[in-house]
Design goal:
Number of helices: 4
Oligomer: single chain
Largest sheet: 8 strands, antiparallel
Number of strands: 20
Order of helices and strands: EEEEHEEEEEEEEEEEEHEEHEHE
Shape: elongated
Radius of gyration: 27 Å
Length: about 300
């Protein structure tokens, strides 16, 4: 968004006049380690890496909601960069989350740029992706598998304190995370946990340095619950590295001398299993990456197929 003169009838206008540098590499490899009369083992690898950096953003980004979203634009940083609140632990006496947030008296830029009072967390896009595959054939039987590898990148876990409970003590109608079992419960628990206590209506709100502001379609209040800020803090940032086994397929081609008796040229019977398993970074604590970010998990898919050519 860019500020425009009032005679245009609006205060701000979407303008695509920023600049960035972008480079990358795509690599595809296919080779056959073993090949005999009846047995063949092949390996395939398709990989990509992209590097970019914003060189001119043409405008300020004052709201923290934009800064934490991955759509924030800042010179010298890559596309999909995001910022979070710098979490410094829980209050030893109350369990309320605490943050390092500079004020205008120490940094005048916090009024205009949310990244000045937040902490750089990385970028949503991975550093490197790859899709390895390995088909193995023995006579008329073929077993193949495909996987997806994503390395690097960062993201925020799904909010630990939903909107409906940040202003009041939770009740039986709230769907809460199991990790709240390990929350702060009594004075001194900050030595054994960094998960805040349950919210209470009496908790003081935190001042937002840039204050109340409307920027594009984003409205920001001048104060915010510390529990809302915790959801988008450095305590909730994880490395997004994972390896997903996309599918395993087994097929059997019925010999021609059998199919010719049925007036068929070829026939193949197969079975495939999709989304078999995902190996995730330890920060996810075994949870599927989609679930950890608040999305629905990918289901396992079983498929039987029969292909006949006459």
């Amino acid at each position: 968004m860019k500020e425009v003169p009032y005679e245009n009838g609006i205060n701000q206008l979407p303008v695509n006049n920023g600049t960035l540098t972008n480079s990358g590499i795509d690599l595809t490899l296919n080779f056959i380690p073993i090949k005999t009369k009846n047995f063949t083992w092949s390996l395939g690898l398709s990989s990509s890496k992209n590097v970019n950096k914003i060189t001119n953003r043409q405008g300020q980004n004052p709201t923290w909601n934009i800064a934490k979203s991955g759509t924030y634009l800042k010179e010298g940083y890559p596309v999909s960069s995001f910022w979070v609140f710098d979490f410094k632990g829980v209050d030893s006496a109350t369990g309320v989350p605490l943050f390092n947030i500079p004020t205008a008296s120490t940094n005048a830029n916090v009024i205009f740029d949310a990244s000045e009072f937040m902490k750089y967390a990385g970028k949503l896009n991975p550093d490197f992706t790859s899709g390895p595959s390995t088909p193995i054939s023995y006579k008329t039987i073929t077993v193949s598998s495909r996987a997806y590898l994503s390395v690097g990148g960062r993201k925020l876990l799904s909010p630990l304190y939903p909107v409906e409970m940040v202003r009041s003590t939770p009740n039986e109608y709230n769907n809460l995370s199991k990790y709240l079992i390990n929350r702060w419960r009594k004075p001194g628990d900050n030595a054994i946990t960094d998960i805040p206590s349950l919210p209470q209506s009496s908790v003081s709100y935190v001042d937002i340095p840039s204050g109340a502001i409307v920027f594009g379609n984003q409205a920001q209040s001048s104060i915010e619950s510390p529990y809302s800020l915790y959801n988008f803090s450095s305590a909730r940032v994880v490395n997004t590295t994972y390896l997903r086994i996309n599918n395993i397929n087994v097929s059997y081609t019925i010999p021609f001398h059998i199919m010719s008796r049925m007036s068929c040229k070829t026939a193949t019977v197969g079975y495939s299993l999709g989304n078999l398993y995902t190996f995730v970074n330890k920060d996810y604590k075994g949870v599927d990456p989609e679930v950890a970010s608040g999305s629905q998990p990918l289901p396992k898919i079983h498929s039987l197929n029969l292909s006949i050519t006459f």
